[in-house]
Amino acid sequence: MRTLRWEGVSKYWPAPGGEGVPAVLDVDLAVNAGEFVALIGPSGCGKTTLLEIAAGLESPTSGCVTLDGKAIDGPGPDRTLVFQEHHLFPWLRVRSNVAFGLRFAGLSRSDRKKRVDGLLSAVGLAGVADKLPPQLSGGMRQRVALARALAVGPEVLLLDEPFAALDFQTRILMQRYLLAVWQRFGTTMVFVTHQVDEALLLADRVALVSAGPGRLLEEIAIDLPRPRDPADPRFLKLRAQLTSHLEREVMAAADEGMGELLLPAEESEHGIEAHERVF
Ligand SMILES: Nc1ncnc2c1ncn2[C@@H]1O[C@H](COP(=O)(O)OP(=O)(O)O)[C@@H](O)[C@H]1O
Ligand SMILES: [Mg+2]
């Protein structure tokens, strides 16, 4: 069983002179091999932090993330991250960007080419293999990033709001490509998004994270056949349920951030000083 599992994960970011600021608290979440899980929660609730820990880029303050029961203690080719920003090398052709992670994979030149060509056609980019990233649209660049992340043959793909910067139509197209890639390669997916519809269109299961510091509030199984129909009454019911839960957390996060601003000076913890600082 190749399961990615957050086990009692808490992360405190260092703060000057203090014990640290909690970003996530006691998160337990298991993602089974080949499963597609969406993480949703208000901005700043710790979603990126959870992915960074799974990627091995950050270590938890307590708890651990395991893959196949083995604790993750650094980055590895079994897990790759796709960000909102694509981070492609603008001076390298599309095919070289995709092949970048294969430099040390011990493949022959022709095997490398075969793998890169296969990935580029899987994401609909066979025709632009010799172009440079600045010559592509935003959606195409993000597909190059997806192909590059898949090139090393990861077991787990960690996607951090990968389509957030794209327009609505491109986003719909990207969701289709992502589902096609997932169905073809069987990669385990952890997908962070702000959008309820996106989570419901893609995932087997949606995990809702609370307003920061993030705790896992609930997991909702999306037991609907794909491709999913947003007009399906079952889809609409899940959307209403998830939207109201997410809205509650977004408001909690907003109240937290605005509390000091909304309080009259004499009731504020720091009195008039707080107002002077804010304004
Ligand atoms: N490298 C860091 N150093 C200090 N604080 C951080 C760092 N990264 C994130 N944070 C803080 O941790 C909290 C969670 O951030 P993040 O994981 O980026 O949330 P999300 O992805 O859900 O928006 C936020 O309060 C953020 O300011
Ligand atoms: Mg984030």
What features would you describe in this structure?
The chain is an alpha/beta fold and 279 residues long. The protein folds into 2 domains: 4-78 and 154-278, Rossmann fold (3-Layer(aba) Sandwich); 91-151, no CATH class. Helices cover 38% and strands 22% of the residues. It has 8 helices and 10 strands. The chain has helices spanning 47-55, 94-99, 109-122, 138-151, 168-185, 196-202, 233-262, 272-278; strands at residues 4-13, 21-31, 36-40, 62-67, 70-71, 79-82, 156-160, 188-193, 205-209, 216-221. The strands form 2 sheets. A 6-stranded mixed sheet has the order 6-7-8-3-9-10, sandwiched between helices. It has a 4-stranded antiparallel sheet with strand order 2-1-4-5, with helices on one face. Helix 5 (168-185) links the parallel strand 7 (156-160) and strand 8. Helix 4 (138-151) runs parallel beside helix 5 (168-185). The protein starts with a strand and ends with a helix. Residues 265-279 have low confidence and may be disordered. Adenosine-5'-diphosphate (ADP) binds at residues 13, 23, 41, 43-49, 212.
Q: Architecture of the largest domain in CATH? A: 3-Layer(aba) Sandwich
> Bound small molecules, which ones?
adenosine-5'-diphosphate, magnesium ion
CATH fold topology of the largest domain: Rossmann fold
Query: What structural class should be given to the helix and strand makeup?
Result: alpha/beta
Instruction: Identify the quaternary structure here.
Output: single chain
Total of domains: 2
What is the 3D shape? globular
Radius of gyration: 21 Å
> N-to-C SSE series?
EEEHEEEHHHEHEHEEHH
> What does the main sheet amount to?
6 strands, mixed
Mean pLDDT: 90
Sheet with the most strands: spatial strand order: 6-7-8-3-9-10
Quote the beta fraction.
Answer: 15-25%
Ends apart, CA distance between termini: 55 Å
- CATH homologous superfamily title of the largest domain: P-loop containing nucleotide triphosphate hydrolases
Stretches where pLDDT is under 50 for at least 5 consecutive residues are 265-279
Number of helices: 8
